[in-house]
Amino acid sequence: MKNSSGYNTRQKEKLLDYLISNKDKHTNVQKISAYLTAEGTPVGVATIYRQLDKLVENGLVRRYTIDGKTGACYQYIDESQDCMSHFHLKCVRCGTLIHITCDHLSEIGEHIMAHHNFRVDPSKTVFYGVCEACMEEEEND
Fold first, then answer.
1. 91, CA 20 to 30 Å: which among 17, 25, 123, 124?
2. Cα-Cα-Cα-Cα dihedral sign, residues 4, 5, 11, 15
3. DSSP one-letter string for the chain
4. What gap in Å lies between CA 35 and CA 30, rounded to an integer?
5. Domains of the chain, with CATH numbers?
6. Over the stretch 60-117, which tens digit does the pLDDT of each residue have?
7. pTM here?
């Protein structure tokens, strides 16, 4: 990351604080920008992208591309979570990201390798759906 002559250290800290406090969810540049502005440290979108790219390169943040139409989502990688070896479930309603280690899902990866000669990367594999809390909320409406 740049020194204080470039990107403001306070802004970097606020950006990282936001990512850490939202580590269980994907976030995007627009949400980060709104947060930083509300905190009194507005930052240009291009600068946020540059800083996120550096955090991704340094292995502190993971970038998820949902589809080719919408912007990327980002998530802080918690040191206690080994995101390279498990699958993820993402709620399309609230954005919660669930880290899941499951023998059955591992078997899917093994099957695909054995029968289709293709190695699945669990760190980049995300199953999209609706989480339990959102399903309960939907039932109560």
1. 17
2. negative
3. ---TTSS-HHHHHHHHHHHHHTTTB-B-HHHHHHHHHHTT----HHHHHHHHHHHHHTTSEEEE---SSSPPEEEE--TT--TTSSEEEEETTT-BEEEE--HHHHHHHHHHHHHH-----GGG-EEEE--HHHHHHHHH-
4. 9
5. 1-78 (1.10.10.10), 81-141 (3.30.1490.190)
6. 888 877 656 667 888 888 765 555 567 888 888 887 778 787 888 888 889 999 999 9
7. 0.61
